[in-house]
Amino acid sequence: MKEKFISERQVKYKTIFAFLFFILAFAAGIYLWKLVRKEPQAGGVPTTLRKGLMYDEKLFSSTFNKDKLVKTYPKSEAVKKVRVNGNLGLKNPNIDTATWRLQVVKNNGDTMFFSLNDIKKLPKTEIVYDFKCIEGWSQKTWWGGVRFSDFINHYHLNNEAKLNYVGMNTPDKEYYVGIDMPSILQPQTLLCYEMNGKPLPVNQGYPLRLIIPVKYGIKHLKRIGTIYFSNERPPDYWAERGYDYYSGH
Ligand SMILES: Nc1nc2c(c(=O)[nH]1)N[C@H]1C(S)=C(S)[C@@H](COP(=O)(O)O)O[C@H]1N2
Ligand SMILES: [Mo]
């Protein structure tokens, strides 16, 4: 085979060319980023980036299949020490379940009140899955509670479930999430009152939290106060701060 020699001079030109190209591409990158940063904001992020997020959401929600289950694991694989992350809306440490009630607002404006026992009366569902936080960590954790879809059926909230979204708040309204109906009705979504086979610890949402395996941690609202239904997107704490509203994975 005939070897091809490149002269030292050619090497020099190529090096200079590559270097100039790199500088130009870098400058163009900074310039475009600055343009995007100057754009008007849409829900906490520049318009172009928001468009990207809206596109992601369309793509994700159109491919969402509510019969497809998130991967589960045996209880033996669940971690004993579950990480605590986020304490918005959990300031008051004294929750008395004798007087605590979950509030559910119906379409006609009526509010229903549920004690923890009303919820525990329904069949218990348990799940061990890989809980993922948007910050980059994940943990296999074990939860127990009532399927959200069982709750809806048992308490005749089927008309409410025809709307597009569910909204949830902590009792003090400090933390709040909005969730699309197909995801909340997915059979692994729980109104959860147990972790590792015991009542939820206070900082993990006692007496009742949301477990929604098809979503990132930000949607797993701890200490549910109120649940309501709506065709418009309910306000969402982290979406208002620039995170993806859908937050599926
Ligand atoms: N009330 C309330 N719920 C919340 C949060 C919060 O700050 N307040 N943080 C969320 C976030 S970002 C994550 S990752 C999970 C963490 O759940 P854990 O503390 O049980 O691990 O809770 C979610 N639910
Ligand atoms: Mo998170």
Question: Nutshell version of this structure?
Answer:
This protein has helices at 8-38, 47-63, 116-120, 148-154, 181-185, and strands at residues 41-42, 45-46, 102-105, 111-114, 125-132, 138-147, 165-169, 176-180, 190-195, 198-199, 209-211, 226-230. With 249 residues, it is of the alpha+beta class. It has two domains: 1-38; 42-241, Sulfite Oxidase, Chain A, domain 2, CATH 3.90.420.10.
Taken from the alpha-carbon principal axes, the silhouette is elongated
Bound ligands, named by name, code or SMILES:
ligand MTE, molybdenum atom
The top-level CATH class of the largest domain is Alpha Beta
The CATH architecture designation of the largest domain is Alpha-Beta Complex
Radius of gyration based on Cα positions: 24 Å
Number of helices: 5
Number of domains in the coordinates?
2
Please report the distance between the alpha carbons of the first and last residues: 52 Å
Binned, the helix content reads 25-40%
* Beta-strand percentage range: 15-25%
Order of strands side by side in the largest beta sheet?
4-3-12-7-8
Number of strands: 12
SS-derived structural category: alpha+beta
| CATH topology term of the largest domain | Sulfite Oxidase, Chain A, domain 2
Largest sheet: 5 strands, mixed
Low-pLDDT sequence parts: none
Mean pLDDT: 92
Q: What is the succession of H and E elements?
A: HEEHEEHEEHEEHEEEE
